[in-house]
């Protein structure tokens, strides 16, 4: 229930903001006689949290009646759930508001209020009336009007959104984006706040419900369906959804997020989908449903790759005999002679505008890349051409550092090289064009369809693009199966490196990696570089307490052996939560081992998490202003309890975090396989249990094992290991990239 009125008396108040007060209600017709306060005619008693309310304030409240016969107050009280101060209907606040306008001041505000008790209406609707006041010209009256309207809109927006718990920071961003008509625009379509990534759908639906929006309102469905197709489908790796899957996912989404309860049958949704696709709000193609941006991304990747495949590289005319000579010189310089497959890959990368190099650890990808760069540079030098500008990049900071170390050249993150930002929308025409002659991208299995679209739009057709990655690793966290689809299509030349050349201390890791990929469950264990610590699953230990205890013991041994180097050992678990051997739970116990509490001054508590000086942490979202990206790991070097700030050293890059930014950090003593992808660690401890069965997939297990540079220690159940090697099912990703590449190719 809602009511509006003037506060005439405050009986009691506490520092917390709790108050008991009398409200003179403007419309008493809606108030039953027995609930009116007999001691104050035309009034009711309010109780609740109303911190900013003062006598004579006009307020609007929502809540419900309650009867409390005992006590010294009138038994019927209106329990306030939420309230808003009506600033422009409260004389003292209106005078203060006008005085604070940049062109008014206290004295002029008092004169305006004295002359016009309804000053807000005069300023807003008839500002010329202000000119009768001495010193107010027509121009100044207009300035007062403009400033009043602008500030009133901001105040109205704040009053409107505060009741839904929207923070002032978010309100300011919304006001800056929507301008003076913000409230009008939001009331016309509150779901645009979700479309523009200001508020969650759940919060927008609360606003929509209060404004009387129907469950099947097209504006509501457009936002919900696009969210499902973009975010929900994308989080599961899907580029599009079939109609059946879209209905299923949409109903699940509404179940979890809707304030307006509803569900839709396939038939009901089909009509709405037809309207939305006709308006271009959703794209339908061959039974596939896309959000428009994702459809454009997939289509552009297919179109650009096909176009590039038809073009020869600018270096295609280099004579074969010259390339052979330069290749031999490059091999001598690198100190390794390539096999026939690798030599063919170098020639293909020079001849074609786009090419793919794929292979597992130790297959010679880095050696091939170094040889390619030197061969190309020697060849163009012999021909008297300019030295090619070669850009190297990888998805994560750690992967780009490893790439730079192995090539001896600068390597950047893909986000930096291509200026990819998720916090701003960018038209396809606004892509930053990379002027490099050659672009080499590593760890391409981590790239989703959206990132690949940004990359390809940024390249000239003459720029040589080399995609390097291990197609047997898990695909990207985001939508699509880009590397696998490109390889399967057969449109782009692919060099498959299958022979392992790296031996030495990592020999067993490489042997077992090949076994895992081929489905061979007979792993070679208990070697210096590959150890299996058996912890059989037990039905009485579904929480995996025994597994956690053994993991703690082994971690402690390896941590001490590594000289307490925070980067020496990495624990990997397939699951983020659910058992005590999951990432979140392990991070708590491993923190106690690696970085126990020494002083309260060197730690900050954020909810249930304690950040300490010396903690190893991971950045879990891209922060372009700070230059750190999702998956980057560092160590906390400074904790300020007074200022509520942290400083993290990302192996040379020191970054400060304020309290509002702490959510960007997670502990990294343990991490998931997905977060570890693109990185390597001297020692990896990987927990494997059937109680994580949903995540026991061959490619995920393979990816985890190949993160180890020196030693992998598997801790867990042998049957779970065998199951992980057998299990190739996983979730089939819905992507049409391969089909689109093939169809275009076949259509020629």
Quote the average pLDDT.
91
Label the structural class: alpha/beta
Q: Main sheet, how many strands, which sense, barrel?
A: 6 strands, parallel
State the distance separating the first and last CA atoms. 67 Å
Measured as a percent range, the helix fraction is 25-40%
Count the E strands: 25
What is the count of DSSP helices, taking H or I runs of 4+ residues? Answer: 26
Describe this structure in words.
- This protein is of the alpha/beta class and 748 residues long.
- It has 26 helices and 25 strands.
- The strands form six sheets. A six-stranded parallel sheet has the order 10-9-11-12-8-13. Strands 1-2-3-5-4 form a five-stranded mixed beta barrel. Strands 14-25-24-15-23 form a five-stranded parallel sheet.
- A hairpin with a 4-residue loop joins strand 19 (633-640) and strand 20 (645-650).
- It is globular and about 100 Å long.
- The chain starts with a strand and ends with a helix.
- The relative contact order is 0.07.
- The mean pLDDT is 91.
């Amino acid at each position: 229930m809602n009511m509006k009125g003037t506060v005439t008396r405050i009986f009691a108040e506490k520092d917390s903001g709790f108050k008991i007060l009398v409200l003179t209600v403007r419309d008493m017709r809606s108030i039953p006689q027995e609930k009116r306060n007999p001691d104050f005619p035309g009034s009711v008693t309010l109780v609740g949290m109303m911190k900013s309310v003062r006598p004579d304030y006009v307020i609007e409240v929502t809540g419900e009646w309650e009867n409390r016969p005992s006590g010294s107050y009138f038994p019927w009280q209106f329990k306030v759930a939420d309230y808003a101060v009506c600033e422009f209907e409260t004389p003292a606040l209106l005078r203060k508001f006008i005085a604070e306008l940049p062109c008014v001041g206290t004295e002029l505000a008092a004169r305006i209020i004295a002359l016009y008790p309804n000053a807000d209406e005069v300023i807003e609707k008839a500002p010329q009336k202000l000119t009768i006041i001495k010193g107010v010209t027509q121009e100044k009256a207009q300035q007062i009007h403009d400033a009043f309207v602008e500030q009133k809109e901001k105040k109205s927006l704040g009053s409107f959104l505060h009741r839904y718990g929207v923070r002032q920071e978010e309100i300011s961003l919304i006001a800056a984006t929507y301008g003076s008509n913000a409230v009008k625009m939001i009331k016309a379509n509150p779901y645009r706040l979700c479309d523009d990534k200001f508020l969650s759908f759940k919060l927008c639906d609360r606003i929509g419900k209060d404004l009387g929006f129907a469950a099947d309102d097209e504006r509501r469905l457009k936002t919900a369906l696009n969210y499902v197709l973009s975010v929900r489908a994308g989080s599961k790796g899907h580029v599009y959804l079939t109609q059946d899957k879209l209905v299923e996912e949409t109903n699940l989404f509404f179940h979890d997020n809707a304030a307006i309860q509803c569900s839709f049958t396939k038939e009901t949704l089909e009509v709405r989908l037809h309207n939305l696709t006709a308006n271009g709000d959703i794209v339908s193609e061959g039974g596939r449903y896309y959000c428009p941006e994702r459809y454009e991304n997939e289509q552009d990747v297919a179109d650009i790759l096909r176009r590039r495949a038809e073009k020869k590289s600018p270096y295609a005319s280099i004579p074969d005999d010259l390339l052979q000579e330069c290749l031999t010189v490059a091999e001598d310089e690198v100190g390794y002679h390539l096999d026939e497959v690798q030599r063919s890959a170098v020639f293909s990368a020079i001849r074609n505008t786009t090419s793919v190099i794929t292979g597992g650890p130790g297959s010679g990808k880095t050696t091939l890349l170094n040889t390619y760069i030197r061969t190309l540079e020697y060849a163009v030098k012999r021909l008297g051409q300019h030295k090619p500008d070669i850009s190297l990049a990888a998805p994560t900071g750690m992967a780009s550092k490893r790439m730079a170390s192995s090539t001896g050249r600068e390597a950047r993150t893909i986000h930096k090289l291509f200026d990819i930002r998720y916090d701003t929308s960018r038209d396809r025409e606004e892509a930053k064009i990379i002027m490099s002659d050659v672009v080499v991208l590593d760890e391409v299995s981590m790239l989703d369809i959206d990132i690949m679209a940004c990359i390809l739009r940024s390249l000239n057709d003459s720029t040589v693009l080399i995609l390097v990655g291990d197609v047997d690793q898990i695909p990207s966290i985001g939508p699509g199966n880009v590397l696998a689809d490109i390889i399967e299509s057969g449109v782009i030349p692919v060099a498959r490196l299958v022979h392992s050349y790296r031996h030495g201390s990592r020999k067993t890791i490489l042997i077992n990696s090949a076994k895992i990929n081929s489905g061979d469950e007979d792993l070679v264990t208990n070697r210096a570089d590959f150890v299996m610590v058996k912890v059989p699953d037990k039905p009485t230990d579904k929480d995996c307490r025994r597994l956690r205890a053994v993991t703690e013991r082994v971690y402690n041994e390896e941590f001490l052996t590594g000289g307490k180097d925070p980067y020496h050992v990495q624990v990997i678990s397939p699951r983020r939560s659910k058992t005590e051997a999951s990432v979140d739970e392990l991070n708590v116990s491993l923190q106690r081992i690696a970085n126990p509490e020494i002083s309260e001054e060197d730690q900050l508590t954020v909810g249930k998490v304690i950040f300490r000086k010396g903690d190893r942490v991971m950045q879990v979202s891209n922060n372009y202003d700070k230059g750190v990206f999702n998956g980057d790991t560092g160590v906390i070097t400074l904790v300020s309890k007074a200022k509520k700030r942290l400083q993290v050293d990302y192996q040379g890059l020191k970054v400060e975090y304020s309290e509002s930014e702490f959510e960007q950090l997670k502990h990294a003593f343990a991490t998931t396989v997905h977060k570890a992808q693109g990185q390597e660690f001297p020692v990896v401890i990987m927990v494997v249990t059937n109680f994580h069965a949903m995540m026991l997939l061959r490619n995920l297990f393979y990816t985890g094992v190949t993160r180890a540079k020196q030693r992998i220690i598997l801790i867990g159940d042998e049957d779970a290991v065998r199951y992980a090697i057998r299990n190739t099912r996983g979730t089939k990703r819905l992507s049409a990239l391969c089909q689109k590449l093939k169809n275009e190719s076949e259509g020629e």
